[in-house]
Write a structure and sequence with these properties.
The structure is a single chain. With 233 residues, this protein is of the alpha/beta class. The chain folds into two domains: 2-181, HUPs (Rossmann fold), CATH 3.40.50.620; 190-226, no CATH class. It is built from eight helices and eight strands. It has helices spanning 15-28, 52-62, 86-95, 109-112, 121-127, 142-145, 190-198, 213-221, and strands at 2-8, 32-37, 69-71, 102-108, 129-133, 151-156, 164-170, 175-181. It has an eight-stranded mixed sheet with strand order 3-2-1-4-5-8-7-6. Helix 3 packs parallel to helix 5. The radius of gyration is 18 Å and the shape is globular. The N and C termini lie far apart (53 Å).
């Protein structure tokens, strides 16, 4: 079984997140994809704008009906108030998988560019395979440049159409794989979405809405990001 973990703030979940999930499932022929909103993001010092429960609720709405996709609370806020680290989630998930299962960590290219700063990054990069989605025009040379010291990347012929493949390796001889999706046709930032919402810019007037109608309605109903509920006569 091929399983992918897609972590992140999802504050809010938008069409870019959904597009990445669809592309990863299609290209890698995944059997299961877990969307896991993070309780406390280690590399973001500011608090998320919506609570963990609200982000879980919006994610369930955003990914409802997406085949093979499940929104999971596995990366919920910790009782000891420590930040949530991806390596902890990956190792916990691996313990629950069968020996022949293949685990991937899914992320966008912007998140990948920070991978060298992640907690126990070298160990994480050897713990599972990776799928990284990059929009057209992204500088692909940045992908290996983001690796932490001690991890090297070597390009390999890819047997997955539409993917660029690299083998990652450390000094001890451990190996994993990085599958790059170079044609993610979405350029959406959750930061920009929140800014637009806080300035009362109606995201749903776009012919191809950034937010699903259900997520937009949830935001209005719960007055998130400075949005006021619709007025009724």
């Amino acid at each position: 079984m091929k399983i992918a973990l897609f972590g992140g703030s999802f504050d809010p979940p938008h069409r870019g997140h959904v597009a990445l999930v669809r592309l990863a499932i299609s290209r890698l022929h995944l059997d299961r994809l877990l969307v896991a909103p993070v309780g406390r993001q280690p590399l973001k010092h500011e608090a998320t704008s919506a609570s963990f429960g609200e982000r879980m609720a919006m994610s369930r709405i955003a990914f409802a009906g997406e085949p093979l996709t499940e929104v999971s609370p596995m990366d919920a806020p910790r009782s000891d108030e420590r930040p949530n680290y991806t390596i902890d989630v990956v190792l916990e998930l691996k313990r629950a998988l069968a020996e022949y299962d293949i685990l991937f960590c899914l992320m966008g290219a912007d998140a990948w560019l920070t991978i060298g700063k992640w907690y126990r990054a070298p160990e994480l990069l050897m713990a599972c395979d990776f799928i990284v989605g990059a929009r057209p025009g992204f500088d692909l040379d940045q992908i290996p440049e983001a690796l932490p010291p001690g991890i090297r990347a070597a390009s390999e012929p890819s047997d997955v159409p539409g993917c660029l493949l690299s083998q990652l390796a450390d000094a001890a001889g451990n190996r994993s794989h990085l599958y790059l999706l170079p044609d993610l046709a979405e350029d959406v930032s959750a930061t920009e979405v929140r800014a637009a919402l806080s300035h009362h810019i109606e995201a749903q007037t776009d012919p191809d809405p950034v937010l699903s109608p259900g997520v937009a309605n949830y935001i209005r109903a719960h007055r998130l990001y400075g949005v006021e509920p619709e007025q009724t006569d």
